[in-house]
Amino acid sequence: MIIGVPKEIKNHEYRIGMTPSGVQELTARGHTVLVQARGGEAIGLSDEEYGAAGAELVTSAAEIFARAEMVVKVKEPQAEECALLRPGQLLFTYLHLAPDPVQTQLLVHSGAVAIAYETVTDDRGGLPLLAPMSEVAGRMAVQAGAHSLEKAQGGNGTLLGGVPAVAPAKVVVLGGGVVGVNSARMALGLGADVTILDKSLPRLRELDGLYGPALKTLYSTKANIEACIAQADLVIGAVLIPGAAAPKLLTRAMLGLMRKGSVLVDVAIDQGGCFETSRPTTHEDPTYVVDGIIHYCVANMPGGVARTSTFALTNATLPFVLALADKGYQRALKEDKHLLAGLNVYKGSVTQQAVAEALGYDY
Ligand code: NAD
Question: What domains does the chain contain, in order, with CATH numbers?
Answer without folding.
Answer: 2-120+306-359 (3.40.50.720), 131-299 (3.40.50.720)
